[in-house]
Specification:
alpha+beta; GMP Synthetase, Chain A, domain 3; globular; about 15% strand; two-stranded antiparallel ribbon; 7 helices; three-stranded mixed sheet
């Protein structure tokens, strides 16, 4: 298992899983060859929760993190991809260090998803691939905050700066108003531009 500072496992799982979400159907072998750049082992894991494990070392952590970022799902979350970048997403996740069974990752830039969700899903994927991992954390807990308080010279809060990417079409605000979790769907509705939809991970 893994731990994230200031987050209980139950809280994290509630953020990551949703009973209202549905896993995508994996493509056939021939279809997968045609969309190799958009479908990888992370997407397979999201579909059936089966994945090969490996020993824990820095190279494997970095490779598995790349699988997460380059997956079909990751291409809706990280600013290194054209689609999320087009709506103002600049967020990235980087490997910092491995200390025994503890992995440190860094979150930079602006995400459409909550930063807790980004770290939580990366942590679950790394732990699924390398069960030796007992903790996935960030070097500074402030990296998990979606808002930053701007204070004056006397320590008075002037305003809260939103560290998330813009809500480009109002969907996130609408879903929050309706009491729905925007992270369970992501920024792109089902079928938009040929992709989008469920953000579920397997239990």
């Amino acid at each position: 298992m893994f731990n994230v500072p200031a987050l209980s496992l139950v809280f994290l799982l509630n953020k990551v899983f949703s009973v209202d979400s549905f896993a995508p159907t994996p493509p056939t072998s021939s279809a997968r060859c045609r969309v190799r750049s958009l479908w990888n082992v992370y997407d397979d894991w999201r579909s059936d929760a089966v994945v090969d494990t490996m020993h824990l070392d820095e190279e494997n952590v970095q490779n598995c993190l790349e699988e997460f970022v380059d997956s079909n799902y990751g291409q809706e979350m990280f600013g290194c991809h054209e689609r999320p970048a087009s709506i103002g997403v600049t967020g990235s996740i980087e490997f910092v260090e491995l200390c025994g069974p503890e992995v440190t990752l860094s979150l930079q830039g602006e995400f459409w998803h909550r930063r807790e969700t980004v770290l939580g899903r990366a942590a679950m994927w790394l732990n699924a691939r390398m069960p030796e991992i007992v903790e996935v954390t960030v070097p500074d807990i402030e990296q998990l905050n979606d808002f930053e308080e701007i204070v004056d010279e006397y320590g008075e809060v002037l305003f809260r700066k939103d560290k998330r990417s813009p809500d480009y079409n109002g969907d996130r605000e609408t879903m929050e108003y309706q009491g729905r979790d925007p992270d369970m769907r992501g920024p792109f509705p089902q079928g938009a531009m040929g992709m989008g939809g469920s953000m579920i991970n397997p239990i």
